Structure formats: C-alpha cells, structure tokens
C-alpha cells in the first residue's frame, strides 16, 4: 500500500469491537426474547420483558453501527457480502420489526397482547436464526467476479449455514439465560438456570461441529489450525473453550448470579476469536483482504477522528443508562 | 430492468413509511423537552401531565421509527450495492456519524426518559429528554447532509466511476444542505405542531381534559404562527437553490419544457413526457418567472435543454410539488384563522374551528411525503445528481423474483405494523391526559388482564 498512514488495523479493531458488542448485547436481548416465549404466565413474561425494555434499543443500535462501519471502512466487502445474504438480512430485519414494536405495543394494546407476545418470541428466534445463516454463509464465502457478487440470492442457504443458524439460536439463548439469571430472582431465575444448561449442551455440540466442519470446507483453514508449529500456538483456543464450557456448566448450577452471563460472554469471545483466526486477513473470504476492500485513506481518517472521540463517550453514557436500571428487575417497574 | 423497478418501489415503500416517524418524533421530542422544562421551572402539574401524555405516544412512534429505520442502512447493500460501492468513500462517514452522534444518544437516554422517571432526579430526567431531542436533530443533520450530497455533490473527484473525497467541509456543507436541513426540520416541527393542535382541539372539547387541551392548543398555535410562514420562506429559498444547482429538476417541478423569460406559472396541467409538452394547462402569465427568479423578466431554463434520457418523469415532481404547496396554504389559513379567533376571544367557543383542527391533524405528514416525493423524483434519473444513474446503482446479482419476494415481505409486514401502531397511538391519544400511572403500570391505560393464558408453547412442546 502506498498510503501515508495505514488505518486498516485500527478499523479492523473498531469494527471487530462493534460487531462483538452487537453480538453480546443484542445477543442477550434476542436470547431473552426467545426464552420469553417459554415463560409459563403473564407475570413472568412481564418480568422478563422488563429485564430488557429500557436497554434493547441501544443494543440494537450496534447492528446499525456494524453495518455502517463495514460500509465505511470496507465498502467493497459491504457491497459484495450484503447482496449475497439478501434474504437472511431481509428476513432478519422483518423479524426485528415484530420484535421491536412488541415492547410498546403489548404495553398499550392489551387485547392483542397475545399476538404481540408471539411476535416478540418468534421475531427474536427468526432474527437470530437469520443472523446465524449470515455468519455461516460468510465463513463459506461467495461467488465473486470483480467488485460484485455474482451468485444467486439463494446460495447462502446451505447445510453449513443452517447449522450456524441453529447454533446461534442456542448461543443467544445461553446469553439470554445468563442475563435473566443476573436480573431476576426466584422461580424465573431458577427456570433460566435450567434453560441455560440445555442451551449450553447444544452450544458445545454446535461449536464442536462448526470447528470440525470449517477446516473440511477450506484446506487453508485446516492448514492454519493443524500444521506445526501453528497448532502449538493455537491449541490454547480449544483448551480455553473447553474450560469455559466447564465453568459455565457449574455457574449455571448456582448460586452465582453473574457467573453464567460472564461464562457465556467468554464462550462467545473464544468462538469469535476462533473465526477471526480462521479467516484472517480476509474480509471477503477467498477473494479480498481487509486492505484490498478498504475505503480511501481520507475516508478512514475522517471517520476515525470522530469515532475515537465518540466511542468512549457512547460507552460512558450507555454504561450510565445500564447503571440507572441496575439490580433485580421487578414486575411493577414504573412505566413512562 | 425489472429488478431495478421493483427495487425502486421497495425503497419508496420502506422510506415513505419510515419518514412519517421522524416527521413526528423530531418535533415531539422537542415538544416534550419544552413541556418538561416548563414543568421543571414553573412547578405546575399541567405541564408534567402534558409531557407524560406525549411521552407515551412518542414511545410508540419512536419504537416504530427504530425498527423501520434499521432497515435503511441495509437497503443500500441489499438492493443498491453498486451505488454503495461507488459512493461509500464519500457518503459512508456521514451515515456512520449519524449512528455515532445520534442513534446511541437517543437510545441510551430514551430508556431513562421512558422508564427512569422514578429512578433519577427530575433535572436528570429533563436532561434525558433533552438528549433524546438533540439526538433526533443530529440524526436529521447527518442523514440530510448525505441526501443533499446526492442532490448537489461537491468536494469529490471521480476515478474509475467511484467517488473519492477531496474536501470534507464541502461534502458535508454541500450547496443544497443548509436549505434542505432547515426546510425539512421546520417541516417536521410544523407536522408535529398540527398533530398537537388537532389532539389538543379534541381534548379541549371534552370537559375532563379541557384545561390541558387549552394549554397545549394555545402554546402550539403561537408556535405555528411563527413556523408556518417561516417554512414558506425557507421553501422559497430552497427553490432558489434548486434553480441554481439543479435547473433540470426545477424545470420538471414546474413542467417547463421551453426556456424563456416572463414565463407563466402553471397551476394545473397534464404533462406529456413523450412529446415534451403539457395538455389542459391552466396558467397565470408571468407569475412563473416572478416566483422562480423573483423578477418578472427572469429566465427559466426548460427541460428541452437536456436530452430526453436526462429528464425526470415530470408528473411526479409536478403534482407532488403542487400538493405540498396547496397543503401549505391550507396550514397557513388554519393558523391565521385560529389567531384571529384568539384575538377576538372566540377560540374556545368556535367548535367548528376545533373540529377543523382535529380533522387536519395529519396534514403535515401529507405535506412531508409530497415534499419528499418532489425532491427525490425530481432528482431522477440519477442517484448522484448528474453523475451516477439510478439504473447503474442497483445490485447486479438480483433477479426479478428475488426482489418481488422481498418486496412482498416488506409490504405484508408494514401493512400489519403501521396501521396497528397508528391505532395504538390513536387509543393513547383518546385516553386523554389523565394519569394511567394510577393503574397497574404494565397494563398502561387498560384496567384488566384480558390475556392471562399462555398462548405460546416452546418448540419442545412444553416450557423447560
């Protein structure tokens, strides 16, 4: 590159941070939404809803930042990947409409509350499943010619991407259970602990399946993980994943309130790291590196100035809004 | 070609519904700040009641705005990937700054505004309302900067069909931006103003809420007395800007095919795109030059100066503009009538006027949609005016069936969601400014629990 200054590493970090923040924050939101559908009565559903009502909007904003960050920092990747996952993206967005409006609509429209409750639970599930398909399709790669995706909009539906969809449903379910354990007590919390363990078993199976399948799909990934000496450097990743899974199992058993959520976050972090190691330095797998897909230096510079200044401020006031609603949630929380 | 047309229709569909929400929330959030502030400084209960009332309605509108807005940044990728690829270097930071400056601010403080009244001191709650309102304005700033750049691009170089930034100040503060920003935001305030006026008129006619309705109506009428004429002045300035930087668009708006001076103002006509002429035209001599150039002898360029494939489809901007102006005249008439009645001391006794206010409550939304249609269809056939064609912006991999399916999905979901949201807001409006807080809060406004049985079973058949 002939650029006077290379902003690609910092943009990789910012985007990586943004996407991971989204996965964590909306992950537990969506997970709570799915578990909401399993709650046995109105009182516990109200409680579960109130555990995320004041914060869901901020969590979903990270999705916007992720999409726009990709467009801004790596526009070539954006204009290839998004058309390639046309249907999962649009299904996700439509599912999120149902999910998002349910918060206000069920409060204000009691006689159709059942309908909005369904919308909330199924919307959360479908949105999560779609995101998993996007992830799976992304790992597999796309048909590209020049600067365009040239495959069909249905290419993204493969056994591998559907597996990723199922995996993410249980993954977000685990995060959601962790959040509910943190924010509730009594019967709702006890149920979340049991649901968390079911999710954890599925997550462990899914991580194992994806970890074995990915190197089979791509010899380059296999070489990276299994050749000497890489295997020595990278072996801590699966070992850490195993230890985290063990910790998570025990934490879900109680009595810790924060442990299950922390463990779930750890599992997501290690999986995220694993995917990053497999794909680095490609942003459009098999076709374009981060550097090849980057926007102009002037673009990255103009945006980095504000981002580096604004992100800490955003984290501060977002943290403050979580602080305002700290502690266990109550069913009778004052609304508006 | 069909994927192109369907993609355009899909974009129209999602953005037309979406713009109704900011048109309301930008103004309402400021109105809530205004009322919260008055309540905080005067300590009068009435302002607090009004603020709570509008916050309940705002919450529903804002939620719908968020979910229909998240779609927008992905639309650029799903359906307009070549546009995204070509313009990202210039436009993407503007979009990203909208998220960084505005969306997070709105989202974080919205939770405190809606749920935190009892958890934070009153002044902090006021600050939260202020931050949400600031967020909506910052959002307008950045998204309209990006939109304006597409209308009047500046500060770029074009290399191999892709735009590269050369001057960021020129990009953000491009020629049409100040006019578009002020005209749009003022339009949003006016839109909210008429909603508040209509709702207040409805409340003022009921004994129970009479006092609150009058406070709302009185303050809003003053506000609109300033804003509606201001909006007309801003609109005229915006038109002058369009004449200078987008003359072909202005010619399309006016259906002027021939260049000339002392041109008439066409009140009504059926424009004939193919033969480049108008039928059944009703014209006022010389007025066209006078309005467009502020000079009876002024010259206005006609559409025939541009090749046929560089002209907008005239009927859309032509009629949309006329609808917008007509609605503006109606709004001015209402505000002036209300003011005359007020000074005559007859406002609260004029039931016919209160009824008119009720019926015209949504007038601003139609004006916003008409104005938006004018500016966006007038920009055609370009996405970046004069430089990037709409036909060259669409995602190349999409088939007609792909877009037909997605459009059907958007159509079905929005047709369910938006009317439902509208009915819910109408119910909240009709419930009046009382205090639903006295009732079980999660059942706001509804005294009973009509749905107690669990309607949802888990995929495993029973709850885990």
Describe the structure in your own words.
The complex is a heterodimer of chains A (336) and B (464). By secondary structure, chain A is an all-alpha fold. Chain A has one domain (8-301). Chain A contains 14 helices and four strands. Chain A has helices at residues 8-36, 42-50, 56-73, 75-84, 86-108, 113-140, 159-183, 186-217, 219-226, 230-234, 236-252, 259-279, 290-293, 297-324, and strands at residues 144-145, 148-149, 282-284, 288-289. In chain A, the strands form two sheets. Chain A has a two-stranded antiparallel ribbon. In chain A, strands 3-4 form a two-stranded antiparallel sheet. The radius of gyration of chain A is 20 Å and the shape is globular. In chain A, 55% of the residues are buried. With 464 residues, chain B is mostly helical. Chain B has a domain at 203-398. Helices cover 67% and strands 7% of the residues of chain B. Chain B has helices at 2-42, 45-78, 81-115, 122-151, 168-172, 177-204, 210-245, 247-254, 287-293, 315-343, 351-359, 363-379, 400-430; strands at residues 156-159, 162-165, 260-261, 265-272, 277-284, 299-300, 382-384, 388-389. Chain B has a two-stranded antiparallel sheet. In chain B, helix 1 (2-42) packs parallel to helix 13. Chain B is globular and about 65 Å long. The chains are: A mainly alpha (336), B mainly alpha (464). Chains A and B meet through helix 2, helix 3, helix 4, helix 5 and helix 6 of A and helix 2, helix 3 and helix 13 of B.
